[in-house]
Amino acid sequence: MDGFLHGRCALVTGSTSGIGLAIARRLAAAGARVAVHGLGTEEQIAAAVASVQAEGHGEGHGEVRHFGGDLRDAGAIERLMGAVADWSGNIDILVNNAGIQHTAPLAEMPPEKWDSILAINLGSAFHTMRHALPAMAGRGYGRVINIASVHGLVASKEKSPYVASKFGLVGMSKAAALEYAAYGSRDSGGITVNCICPGWVETPLIEPQIEAHRGGGSRDDGVRALLAEKQPSLRMSLPEEIAALAVFLCRREAHNLTGSAIPVDGGWTAQ
Ligand code: NAD
Known about the structure:
This protein is of the alpha/beta class. Strand 4, helix 4 (111-139) and strand 5 form a beta-alpha-beta unit. The protein is built from eight helices and seven strands, in the order E-H-E-H-E-H-E-H-E-H-E-H-H-H-E. The chain has a seven-stranded parallel sheet with strand order 3-2-1-4-5-6-7, with helices on both faces. It folds into two domains: 9-199 and 238-263, NAD(P)-binding Rossmann-like Domain (Rossmann fold), CATH 3.40.50; 206-236, no CATH class. Nicotinamide-adenine-dinucleotide (NAD) binds at residues 14, 16-20, 38-40, 70-72, 97-100, 120-121, 147, 149, 198, 200-201, 203-206.
């Protein structure tokens, strides 16, 4: 890949696993210095950092460090943003990816799940954007990529807090896109704020739902049942495919692609 992100710094929340890890790897491959963030055991975190580092090449490319911080805690987010800025000077690319899921009918949803899903999937993006966007505006280049979901565009039952958080994330991203649309120039790349809205992607997040759809059969049966229900392509996306779109959004020529919510869902939301 060309090193078009050489000299840029990216923070990817929840990049110790799944889609976030794939995005961190692709950004490092494009030359960015990457702040990996997320939870996990020491071994998981070390493995994630090593796999992102392995993508960087050339002097100054792919410098990588892990930052902690529980996104349910606004104070921890404040410290995270300060620590990343101290390390890198700037945050040019902010990917709000961390997210959790819990499925249950609304009346049976534990209220503490509502609190944690809204805090991690939506509230944390408000806090990171609040910190990062003014400095991006000052430099004339910035990218905010929020990993929403098809559930930011359409609903499914038994996911009330998740759907609320993702619709909220799509709406908040549009508002921020408008506020920052006129900063920078075509040459500097401008400030853009977009959502990527995946359908089913092969990551640990959806394993409980695959399990719930097995109906006594194999894991593959569970995957087929999930896809048949909602995703007309009948194919899961891979995290690397979501990451490829995220990297495109960072390019200068994407300066006018802002305020959008891009589905990568095999036709789910076309129905
Ligand atoms: P994942 O479970 O593999 O990764 C989630 C990441 O979030 C991990 O790094 C984890 O450490 C981090 N995280 C969770 N709780 C945290 C907390 N309290 N504080 C800090 N970090 C925390 O999940 P994934 O499937 O890669 O999901 C990434 C994003 O993509 C989520 O926002 C999810 O809603 C969205 N998404 C996933 C799918 C899918 O099918 N997998 C579909 C649509 C949208």
